[in-house]
Amino acid sequence: MFTGIIEEVGTVKLLLQQGETTQIVISAKEVLKGTKLGDSIAVNGVCLTVTKFSADGFCADVMGETLRRSSLGTLKKGSKVNLERAMAADGRFGGHIVSGHIDGTGEIASVSPEGNAVWYRILAPQKILDGIVEKGSIAIDGISLTVAEVTEQEKYVMFTLMLQDCSRNVCGYNIYSWNQIKAAASKSPENISTAILYLLHNLDILKDTANTRTGYVLKSLGYIEEHFTENISLDMAAENMGISSFYLSRLLTQQLQISFVDLLTSARINRAIELIRNQKAVVRNIGIKCGYQSAAYFYKAFKKNTGMTVGEMREFLNFKNTLW
Predict the structure, then answer these.
(1) What's the pTM value of the predicted model, to 2 decimals?
(2) How far apart are CA 277 and CA 318, in angstroms?
(3) Are 232 and 220 in contact, with CB atoms under 8 Å apart?
(4) Gap between the Cα atoms of 158 and 59, Å rounded
(5) At CA 67, angle to CA 64 and CA 71, rounded to 5?
(6) Whose CA is closest to 268, among 227, 310, 212, 208?
(7) Which one, 51, 234, 292, 322, has the greatest CB density within 10 A?
């Protein structure tokens, strides 16, 4: 067992693959004091057994499963690693109980200084997030840390992307955003999945193309899709279809539970996400390509409707491809 209090930073001197096992040689000094063959040393939080050691380093064998589940799989010659000897029964318990068995890996999404502290925001698979609680303890690269906050915003964004694909297949348009899912979740508070089913039910209504009211809704979606980069309004969409703006507004609210403004915003934000996903635009011109004349207003709308900044979304989409 370990405490998560790092004793020393070592350096990887050699990585030698032998079948399914990799032999790792690490230079160190402090953690070698009192160490014997067969003792345990945590390397970036991973419990490894010392198979050989000298005055300036030690050797350990790493299984394939360990490499797949931990950050050790990314190490190379010259990499720095956090080291800690197994906890002594008569020593001080400065961190928390760390087993040295790794659950998985995450990715640093942002680093924000605050006074003499630094906030790290880390993306992780849902199966890991399910076991993390606010103010609980967690070991990251072997370091004992306290969880300041656990948020489901990544889950919301994942469901938003999934629902966009569903809405595109059902009615031809990406019409939902992170905000719509949050609104639906507030009506169906059991879980986010229930909210998704609620929104999919709304999409099912659009399959009834023989219904005149459904036809107006689909036409309004088509109008938004075609003109969302322009300065359009509910009045202009209604005039284009030859109906009153009041009637169109009521149809959208009844059939989709979304206002015209929310639909227009969703089209613009979803387009921004597509551009980010495809790496076809840089931050300074995404807003213009999506119909926003003000960059500041675009950034504000994007954060409100996705829960992330443009940079965080780019990192999230890249990370998502490696996890799901």
Answers:
(1) 0.56
(2) 8
(3) no
(4) 42
(5) 175
(6) 227
(7) 292
